[in-house]
Amino acid sequence: MALINENFLKLKAGYLFPEIGRRVRAYKQQNPDKKVISLGIGDVTQPLAPAVVEAMKAASDEMGKIETFHGYDDGGTGYEFLRKAIQHGDFQSRGVEIGLDEIFVSDGAKCDTGNLQEIFGIDNVIAVTDPVYPVYVDTNVMAGRTGDADEKGRYGKIVYMPCTAENNFTPVLPKEKVDIVYLCFPNNPTGTVATKEDLKKWVDFARETKAIILFDAAYEAFITDASIPHSIYEIEGAKEVAIEFRSYSKTAGFTGVRCAYTVVPKELIGYTKDGKAVDVNPIWNRRQSTKFNGVSYITQRAAAAIYTPQGQKQIKDIIAIYMNNAKTICKELAALGYTVYGGVNAPYIWMKTPKGVSSWEFFDKLLNGVQLVGTPGAGFGASGEGYFRLTAFGKPEDVKEALARFAKLKV
Amino acid sequence: MALINENFLKLKAGYLFPEIGRRVRAYKQQNPDKKVISLGIGDVTQPLAPAVVEAMKAASDEMGKIETFHGYDDGGTGYEFLRKAIQHGDFQSRGVEIGLDEIFVSDGAKCDTGNLQEIFGIDNVIAVTDPVYPVYVDTNVMAGRTGDADEKGRYGKIVYMPCTAENNFTPVLPKEKVDIVYLCFPNNPTGTVATKEDLKKWVDFARETKAIILFDAAYEAFITDASIPHSIYEIEGAKEVAIEFRSYSKTAGFTGVRCAYTVVPKELIGYTKDGKAVDVNPIWNRRQSTKFNGVSYITQRAAAAIYTPQGQKQIKDIIAIYMNNAKTICKELAALGYTVYGGVNAPYIWMKTPKGVSSWEFFDKLLNGVQLVGTPGAGFGASGEGYFRLTAFGKPEDVKEALARFAKLKV
Asked: Which of A93, A185, B296, B307 could staple A194 via S-S, CB 3.0–4.6 A?
């Protein structure tokens, strides 16, 4: 008798974004004449940079000729041309040395942040911020690393670190014993960033407690403040305790192209139950070479094009469009009397819901009242209740229209 | 203290193909003047079909324009245009009805066959053929569904079904209680196929015992015999008990493009420990929507192009090249006195090693003696010892040269 993994039955309702999708589809079906504008799911709207498109077309042509055809990406961790571009463009340029065999190219940071927990034991205590990107939590629930959810949606055994306006959305070092800590800066959903001092605190904590930090830097390209680190490896000693996730989804509009990478340093150590130190890098390599088969050659050529001078200029122009959206949203919502956070070093605007309405209630009011879609803060965790996430990824004209609609919203 | 998943430490040596890669690289470094020909790892050599290349270039152009840009594939299970092409081209055309929401597009059958076990409980007993595609076994080892390996590389708790010349490489229904059965037809590595009667036996067995069959049909495009089923769903009742994996890797040369799909029928039932029936389809959907983010739009357009009349003709011409290789290999090796199997309805030729040498010994003799690379049967399991796998995916001129070298081989 085939038994299902009953941990899946612990999961509360649907994954956040499909749930939003369902509500929006239902509204559109009932109101086919209304134009719904989404500042919600976090998908980008600007097309790919011309350098990226050209690289994909050239790579497609290569794949059509026997002399230049590419089959399996040997080892499945990424072509050397891309890993070299990453090594130089994302790390050496900021004074950080990362080895080519520490870089694992993949088809998305969602996959990587979701899959990485597999290489760790089931008995680890994980710590997450609250609110948090749901993938970190849900994948640990599926793996059986948590208890059941309580009425607020908090799972047993997970250590939640509340991040609210009261603590400037900055997680406090946990007092409990924790083994694996998920951090995301610039933060999704709050738009908060971490200074070097903030990150140093975490690196020191992990070194002292032999914990490992899973650092999600998917939004580093949106940092505007020169003093904010883009990589956790800018902090001394971080290679011993941190894995870093990067993505081209928001950096270069690759949500529909699928490319990302993860850095697992050779210095990183995990432990067996009886305390023996074990290198983590070869274990992740084994996981990837067994369960993954690399990223499309065409996609890897596209990603490499991002690092060319042309590519860099083009993606920066696109990011500037989004950051201008963020600025406009923050300014105009503040003028309407809303309390807003983020939006300066991040593409996310985290707002307080007005008059204390719940975040799903605000979602429904926005959708039904003025046909706007955002993301309910409660979807990111119990401490997200009373907040609402907007993203800066809309088309500028839609953002303008959305703000005009906000002005008309009656709560 | 971060604990690693100690199940990874149970894994024997490296994953087969990286290990072969390491030996070949070492040989080439020491013998830079020698031309090594590979009939080994199973990568294809013919370029992509022109219809596929054109589709990718057109899709790349779409991604470069704001009006036709595509972001996230909503839901991550594949664009409807591709799922409709699959529904019609792979199933309705053979008299099988599969719903669109039963098709999950992915980036590879290796990923799917590796990830699927996650949705099943840790206490299931799995059954595999021996020899077997190593991914089925290794991913269950990683998940903790097995004991340690014995001296032959067989893991505790797994039920192995030996497939050797003595039983025509046809697995016998296990006498032990098993919950999940992996089957692959046309078989990798033996090249064996299953008749309708063979598959019916398995479907009946699964229905009686409430087991689930994971059916890998990655090589169905190589079936030449009209009486052999391409899908397990051609067998009545299979939808209640079987998941099917398909891939474009060998069908259309997508090893470097990455696209596949999995069918999880709505009728398929798993069980909780206390015997409650649970639908499997929504659980896989939840797994995919949480840990995966869909396949590149460009790649999905490429896959859809395979189903056009042009695309069909072009990929059939490519498959004919490979099947002609297979025929030549079988014929000439037989003429040299080797005993060969497969190669008729499959791109794999499974040969007995001569004079009882071990399969890794034969690997080294072929590499060092005549600079040929194949795959040692023992890499696929204990019952693969004494066998050796060749693939038909080489360039015809390389296959010719490889056979000339075989004639010179002294064992």
From this structure: A185
Cβ within 8 Å, pair B291-A44: no
Choose the mutation target among B7, B8, B310 for the interface with A, i.e. most A CBs under 10 Å.
B8
- Look up the ipTM and state it: 0.96
Using alpha carbons, select from A410, A334, A352, A391 the residue that is nearest to residue A37. Answer: A391
Q: Which helix (H) or strand (E) holds B106?
A: strand B103-106
Residue B6's CB is within 10 A of a number of other CB atoms, namely 17
Residue of B nearest to A66 (CA): B47
Q: Are A126 and A145 in contact (CB under 8 A)?
A: yes
Tokens found for residue B360: 């890794």
Return the structure tokens found at B331. Answer: 């014929």
Contact B21 A278 (CB under 8 A): no
Q: How many CB atoms lie within 10 A of CB B209?
A: 17
- The SS3 call for residue B391 is strand
Contact A256 B299 (CB under 8 A): no
Query: Does A15 sit within 8 Å of B271, measured CB to CB?
Result: no
CA distance A119 to B80: 34
Task: Note whether B43 contacts A72, CB cutoff 8 Å.
Answer: yes
Closest Cα in chain B to A49 = B64
Parallel, antiparallel or unpaired: strands A180-184 and A126-130: parallel
Q: A50 contacts in B (CB within 8 Å)?
A: 64
Note whether B6 contacts A273, CB cutoff 8 Å.
yes
B294, B105 contact by CB (below 8 A): yes
Residues of A in contact with B43 (CB under 8 A): 71-72
Confidence of residue B233 (pLDDT cuts 50, 70, 90): very high
* pLDDT block averages, 10 residues each, chain A of length 411: 97 77 93 93 92 98 98 91 98 98 98 98 98 96 97 94 97 97 98 98 98 98 97 98 98 97 98 98 95 97 98 98 98 98 98 96 96 95 96 96 95 82
SS3 A79: coil
Is B138's CB within 8 Å of A57's CB?
no
CA distance B392 to B83: 29
Instruction: Indicate the helix (H) or strand (E) that contains A388.
Output: strand A387-391
Burial of B320 per CB tally in 10 Å (0-12, 13-18, 19+)? exposed
Contact A5, A142 (CB under 8 A): yes
| Residue among B38, B296, B322, B398 with most chain A CBs within 10 A, to mutate | B296
For B177, other C-beta atoms within 10 Å of its C-beta total: 11
Minimal CA–CA distance to B80: which of B239, B303, B384, B379? B303
Which residue, B204, B299, B297, B294, is CA-closest to B242? B204
Cross-chain residue pair A283–B8, CB shorter than 8 Å? yes
Q: Which domains does chain A have, with CATH numbers?
A: 7-47+310-408 (3.90.1150.10), 53-307 (3.40.640.10)
